[in-house]
Amino acid sequence: MPASLTVNLGERSYPIRFDLDLTDEVRQCVEQLTAAGRKVVVVTDRHVADTQKERLAAMFGATPVRLAPPGESSKSVPEFGRVLDFLAAEGLDRGGVLFALGGGVVGDLGGFAAASYLRGIDYYQVPTTLLAMVDSSVGGKTGINLRAGKNLAGAFHQPRGVFIATDFLRTLSEREFAAGAAEVIKYGLLGDAGLLAELESARLSAARADLPAIIRRCCAIKARIVEADEREEAKEGGRALLNLGHTFGHATPICTARRWRSGSAPPPGCRASSAIWARPRWPGWRRSWPPRPCRPGCACPFSCPRCWRRWAGTRRSGPVRPASSFLSRSARPWFAPGSPRPWSRLAGAKSARLTRRHVRNRRRHCPGVF
Ligand SMILES: NC(=O)c1ccc[n+]([C@@H]2O[C@H](COP(=O)([O-])OP(=O)(O)OC[C@H]3O[C@@H](n4cnc5c(N)ncnc54)[C@H](O)[C@@H]3O)[C@@H](O)[C@H]2O)c1
Q1: Would you kindly state where each structural domain of the chain is located, as residue ranges?
Q2: CATH code for 3-171?
Q3: From the CA of 102, how far away is ligand 1's center (Å)?
Q4: 263 close to ligand 1 (CB < 6 Angstrom)
Q5: Is residue 108 within 8 Å of 189, Cβ to Cβ?
């Protein structure tokens, strides 16, 4: 029997279902919608469509599918336009329904298309990465990137339901799994010390039988936060807590020339911001940036609490300061345009070659910020 959780947002409330395999449930949902005369379409990416061919067919049958290229580049204005054109070409009216099957990229892209097409149609999230299961599929934040920066265009548009089937994770690469594991640990820090202790005793892996239960605990924390501050309007705490470590963390892929994924952002982000918060004159940066694995041979640098604590600068028994509010404030002066060469300091002046690469990457990816 699948476990369930409701995100309580009045008339926008919706259920999240958790199990190893939810193929039958998704198929039934599609059949019910179709029987009610509603046109259903799927948005996914090519990689997911290849690795999950049988499940895609079992869930959606002959439903029209839009295949986006895999990866962050799909969260772009041109791809967004192509998805909207696809919805129009399929003749969706306001009763149309979109299923976003994939990681956070497909969820954000498909969700934003659903929010915009005919001023909003219904959509369901079927996440296939750990990051999407514990974070991006819940809460209704949708969006795409602009040349000026990440997630700069988007909408709050809650899904009608979320189907979290952990069997999808069996084909996920270790790197992508690690990116999601970092988010799981983030939820431990935000509101579940017991979860942190459990993760420490047994490493998180796609084969763990209690994975759906762990994901459910993360979603429950996120649901509580979203219910209290759906549109991230609270001045203190609120939904901004979910950005724990992200202010600096989003620089991680740029700083490490994309060797590390943005999903791995929170731990080094926490570490760097703790350093700058404690000693704004920069010595902390030298030790905390660019991020490195916690110990030689650690395959997924941020997927164990030990790595996390190192980067987050926290101790298990010590208090954890909710970092997000002070992060942004303290980071801003250093990243403001015209501030004295923040990036070369950020790189710890490691070498001129590295610094040049950082500057190049920084200009390419965040021209508006840096
Ligand atoms: N909306 C939100 O609240 C929110 C929260 C956190 C992150 N995000 C966004 O999520 C995005 C990152 O999401 P992500 O880490 O899931 O990346 P992703 O969607 O790019 O997926 C990573 C890779 O894994 C592949 N993949 C997905 N599922 C697979 C599976 N089951 N088996 C094999 N391969 C699979 C994809 O094809 C892709 O190549 C970022 O753009 C971020 O901004 C959004």
Answers
A1: 3-171, 187-365
A2: 3.40.50.1970
A3: 7
A4: yes
A5: no
